[in-house]
Please model this.
Amino acid sequence: MARKGENPIPKGRVRRTAKVAGLAGGQTARNYATKAANLTRDEQGRRDAAERRQADAAEQILAVLGNMKGAAMKVGQVASFIDTGALPERSREKIQARLAELRDSAPRVPFKEMRRVIEQDLGGPLEEEFSHFDEEAVAAASIGQVYRATLREAGGGRLSGREVAVKVQYPGVAAAVRSDLQNLGLIMRLAKRIAPGMDAKAMAAEIRERLSDELDYEHEAQSQRAFAREWRGHPFIVVPDVVTSLSRERVLVTEWVDGAGFEEIKDLPAAERDRFAEILFRFFFGSLYRNGHFSGDPHPGNYKLMEDGRVAFFDFGMTKQLGRGHLEAEVTAIRLGMEDDAQGLHNHLATMGFFDAADPELSPAAVLEHFHAVTDWYTQDGEQTLDRALVAQVLVDFGDPRSEYWELMKRQTMPPEAMLARRMEALTLGVLGQLGATANWHRIAREWLFGDPPSTPLGVQEAAFFGRRHAAA
Model:
């Protein structure tokens, strides 16, 4: 029995299904009522009613998801990558606040319960491994909480005696996830009300495939070690080391890093925000196209600006490794679009599995026009400020019924191997838009797309780093 004020993790499928299905039923009734009222409204009235319905649905869905864990919480995070770009202007601030709560402020579990998980996985009392352990969590992830602790001098290898971050999985969350996965189709239909362009079936398949990895912190530790090796010695990117000897299925111990969070960074002068934004762009997009190994979860809680100007990146539970053939195919598609080769782009995307080449509704000209709508911010040469208006329009054109390309998009699909990369790119763009960042994103991207020389001071530093890496290899 949960104590007053605590938020238990509901595990039973019947209980969780009732919670979600009750919301779905309420939304269905409201939709019918709105459709009936629309018969007597003019076009503007119908549009206003649709926007109010969408905003109301978003708030109610977020309220239910925010009280759940497991796959439901992850669906909320997946929906949040759209940020608020595809939501009505009048509701944007309100919905953004709720998304931030869902993404960053999961209900807390009492420390004594989390301590039990740590000691069960480590096979002994905390005091055997840590000289100090803060009982107050410093952050809440979708399926766990993060604590600050200090290793004993005798343990932790290179990090002995150092401060560490200890990520601990919520007790019972694995059972909750299994229950959520049984209801995933229903949950995804609810999430689709927030992001109508989401391919619910494909996204559900992605979540099913990746949640088992995310539940296993040993798998995340392996991914983080790989990223730490790839970026070790980089002039402005840091991936904290993993304390392998203390990392288990439900406990992940990593090097602690101090730094400014995203809300602080948003208040910095424009030049400093631009520099930070360029680093994010180089890490997330650069990881994809340089290494084929990238993090698919670049939400604002996953990085800090260190005092020395470097940026530390965290949370590698959702990563993907793409083969060289797929990466080359993606670069070819970008090049064809940049060259305005409509027929070549159409043929190439069809070959990649985005649509049927014989579909008469998908003309090469329309496909090229849509390509430019969603990529011009980094495929067109010139300085570009990514303000909220621009980002909102790109995200609408990325997958929303209000887009002029909606009929085109409905006839397309997203190959599974491309889905996480597109999610990463959309969320990264949303973050850059919150920073109001300015750069020639095209010239920066050409460094990893086509091997062009560096176009910024950060690019010069990075080119030297990769030059040394290649020479050592």
Notes: The chain has a mean pLDDT of 81. The two ends are 58 Å apart (CA to CA).
